[in-house]
Amino acid sequence: MLRPKVPTNPAPTGIVTPLNTEPTAVVQHTPAPTPVAPAPAAPVLSRPSVQLTPGALVALVGGGTAVVLVVGAVLVSMLLAVAITAASLAICALVIRTLINAQHQR
Q: Where are the domains of the chain?
């Protein structure tokens, strides 16, 4: 069988520096640059952002109307899902019955 070749001592990844090194050049450090004053922050607007929560929807549309709309949408979508499932099962039953009847007539 094919076996993968796994290296026994893989090469190191990244920057490798030897352990016994002597500096040959003198490094001169430059002073750090002076920090720049930050720009003034933008003024904060007093208007809050719009958040659509169920409570905000009730206040927006008006009491019971929002609840009726939400519950109605949920019920209609559930009824549609049940109707599609029932239609699919009916079609499957018809196909299976046709196949069984065709098998018995031979």
A: 78-106
Indicate the pTM of the whole model.
0.39
Q: Is 43 left (phi over 0), alpha (psi -120 to 50) or beta?
A: beta
Pick left, alpha or beta for residue 14 (phi over 0 → left; psi -120 to 50 → alpha; otherwise beta): left
Q: What is the DSSP string of the chain?
A: -------SSPPP-S----SS----SPPPPPPPPPPPPPPPPPPPPSSPPP---HHHHIIIIIHHHHHHHHHHHHHHHHHHHHHHHHHHHHHHHHHHHHHHHHHHH-
- For residue 76, give both structure tokens: 């209609």
Most distant pair of Cα atoms in the chain: their distance: 102
* 62 vs 56: CA distance, rounded Å: 10
pLDDT in tens, 9-40: 766 666 766 666 565 655 566 766 777 776 66
